[in-house]
Structure formats: C-alpha cells, structure tokens
Design goal:
The protein is about 10% helix and about 45% strand. It is mostly beta strands and about 325 residues long.
C-alpha cells in the first residue's frame, strides 16, 4: 500500500519561510528541449468562505522547493522561484520556474563580433547572476550577435533555439551548463508494460523509413544569405534560421537536428508512477514482451510529473534510440 506524501516550502526575498498546508495539484514539466523547467501548483482560493491571500507571503522571486513521494519517503522534485500567483477558475495557481528565472533581468544592448556561445553566456552571467560558473563545451561561433532591448532569459532562449543546445542550471554547484544535444547522459531507468508502466502511447519509427532534408539559413555579417543542406533530398523538409556564423557551425547544427529526426526512435509517451524516478537526459531501457525487436535504450527529452489526491503520475517522452 502506497500513501501519497508531499512537502512544498517557500522562502521569500526577506528570508521568511512559508510551508504550503493545502494542495489541489502539482504539475512539473522538465525538458532538455525547453530552456526553463516549470512547476504549476494549484491550491484553493478560499477556505471556510475566507479568501486566501498568499501573494504577500510568496511574492515574485520567492524560492520554492517541491518534494513528493510515498509512505513518508520524500524526494526532491523541483526547486526554483515563484514567477507569479494568479487566479484561475476558482483556484490560486502558483507559477514557478527553475533557476533560469534568475536571468529574467535586463541586459545591456550590444553587438558582439566575432563571438561564441560561451562568451555570450558568460556575458549574461556577469550581468544577471554574478558568481555563477559556466560549463560550456558547445563550440558554436557567431560572426555577429546582436542584443537589443532584451533580458538574459531572452538571450539564452535565442541561443537554445538556434543551436539546439541543452542549457540548464545545476543549483547545487551554481553552474550554467551548455552542451550539444543528446551528449549528456543521466543514468538509466528500466521500463516494461508488463511490470511498471500504467499506459503506453508509443509508435516505433525506423530510420530506414524516414527521410529528411534539413536546410539551415544564415544572414552573414555582410548581409549575404548562406544556406547549407543536410540529409536526403526528396524527404520531409525542415528549415532552420540561425544568426551569422560559419558554414561549418551551420553544419553542426544541421547534423544535430538530422540525427534527432533520422534515428530509430519511439514517438510518444508512457505513463508510470513516481517510482522509479527519472529526469530528462536519462536513458529509458524499454522492453515490451510483445515487441522484443524494439527492446533497447531510448533518450528521454521530457518528463512531466503530475500529483494530486488522485495519485502521482510521470509521463515520460521517448526519443532517439541510443542502444
């Protein structure tokens, strides 16, 4: 018998702590394909006909920590900051973001040329979160990178969208990570529909049946348009636009997108419970007794965790086959 447990704590900018006593639901979305991980916490708007007023207790920028589990065995599921508290359909919804929230600060206008992903990211750290360290092994270079009327989040978002980099923050070491897609691996979790999976919505796609042509366009610092193509002509077309950069770096981005689309893969999700725990970047070791040829390891780009009186559920998205 598994009993649900939860603990949600806040610390506002003045240092005062606040523990949530009532809860409707929690929804946490973590993904290497998004710049920011998010948590939505829904609580009653009123208790005994008295309107709850928590905005003053947990204003924007308050720290939050969410723990979930069974039988008093709690695990850390999310940490970050309150972005806003809003009224939605008779509930109060606390909208939270992970530590990328710290980059939602205005930065100076700049024209950086030539520059690199690492130099741009370091500039954002210096302006938004001094003291944070940077770990970047994605050597994409820009001929010119323009920042105009933006905040640090906007700049990191542009880098993530153009280069497809995995960008995330390790809160324990206060480090901003920037890495090529699919390169990081965070352990392995075993799944089987016959053992620990509640429901399956997966479709297996073989690389031999998939044809893609990736086009990457860049307007150079001289105003001229450069274009490179990767993949197989005549297949599905994907168009990407990036900032001014060399053709070799455009090819890196195109090849990364092609490897994502052309690999053997599952498309879709499985629903499982809070255990086993898994996070994006992990490998799902999947084995279905009915389809033994599809047994293998699959990269997990996204995990959605839902929690309420009805139970705890993880929706795990499968991606490219890794083994």
């Amino acid at each position: 018998m598994y009993n649900l447990n939860w603990n949600i704590e806040f610390k506002n900018p003045s240092g005062k702590k606040f523990r949530l006593a009532l809860l409707y639901s929690v929804e946490i979305i973590q993904s290497v394909e998004n710049l920011v991980d998010t948590a939505l916490i829904s609580i009653p708007e009123t208790i005994l006909n008295k309107v709850l007023s928590i905005e003053s207790k947990i204003p924007r920028g308050s720290e939050i920590k969410i723990q979930l589990g069974y039988n008093d065995q709690l695990n850390d599921e999310f940490s970050g900051f309150v972005r806003e508290v809003k009224n939605t359909n008779g509930s109060l919804v606390i909208d939270c973001e992970d530590s990328i929230f710290l980059f939602r600060k205005p930065v100076g206008n700049a024209v950086m040329k030539p520059t690199t992903v690492a130099k741009i990211a370091q500039s954002m750290i210096d302006q938004c979160v001094p003291g944070m360290t940077l770990q970047c092994d994605y050597d994409i270079a820009y001929e010119k990178f323009v920042i105009n009327m933006a905040n640090g989040y906007d700049v990191l978002k542009k880098l993530q969208e153009e280069t497809k980099a995995n960008i995330w923050i390790d809160g324990e070491t206060n480090t901003l990570h920037i890495h090529p897609p699919f390169m990081e691996k965070f352990g392995e979790v075993k799944y089987s529909p016959q053992q620990n999976v509640q429901s399956v919505a997966l479709e297996y796609k073989r690389a031999v049946d998939r044809k893609f042509e990736i086009t990457v366009d860049s307007v150079g610092a001289d105003g001229k348009v450069k274009s490179i193509k990767r993949g197989i002509p005549g297949g599905e077309t994907v168009n990407m636009k990036v900032g001014p950069m060399s053709e070799s770096d455009m090819e890196k981005i195109g090849d990364a997108e092609l490897s994502k689309r052309m690999s053997d893969r599952y498309e879709g999700t499985i629903d499982t419970w809070l255990i086993p725990r898994i996070k994006p970047g992990s490998t799902a070791r999947y084995e279905d007794e009915d389809y033994p040829d599809q047994k293998g390891g699959y990269y997990v780009p996204t995990v959605k965790t839902s929690f309420s009186d009805g139970g705890g559920l993880r929706t795990v998205t499968f991606g490219i086959r890794t083994s």
